[in-house]
């Protein structure tokens, strides 16, 4: 497992609350977190649409279930 940085990675999610995010696909013009590679970690930023809620951290991408934890 490695720490990986990639450019232009951006996905949506409908996950609420805390814990693992189920990723719902890339935004037009961006690539999915699959570019990070299964089991690898990267920086992430989550921003609520229309709210002032946000979070930054380091997450691990898992290809089975396409999640970020």
Low-confidence stretches: none
Topology order in helix (H) and strand (E) letters: EEEEE
Structural class: mainly beta
The fraction of residues in strands falls at 35-45%
Secondary structure: helix percent = under 10%
Determine the oligomeric state from the structure: single chain
Number of strands: 5
Shape: globular
List keywords for this structure.
69 residues; mainly beta; five-stranded antiparallel sheet; 5 strands; 0% helix
Strand and helix layout:
Layout: E1 11-13, E2 21-26, E3 41-47, E4 54-62, E5 67-68
Antiparallel strand pairs: 1-2, 2-5, 3-4, 4-5
Describe the structure.
The radius of gyration is 11 Å and the shape is globular. It has no helices and five strands. The protein has strands at residues 11-13, 21-26, 41-47, 54-62, 67-68. It has 69 residues and is mainly beta.
Concise overview:
By secondary structure, this protein is mainly beta. The chain has no helices and five strands. 10% of the residues are buried.
């Amino acid at each position: 497992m490695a720490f990986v940085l990639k450019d232009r990675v951006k996905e949506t999610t409908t996950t609420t609350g805390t814990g693992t995010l189920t990723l719902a696909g890339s935004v037009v013009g961006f690539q999915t977190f699959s570019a990070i590679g299964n089991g690898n970690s990267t920086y992430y930023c989550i921003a609520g649409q229309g709210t002032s809620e946000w979070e930054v951290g380091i997450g691990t991408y898992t290809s089975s279930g396409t999640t970020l934890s």
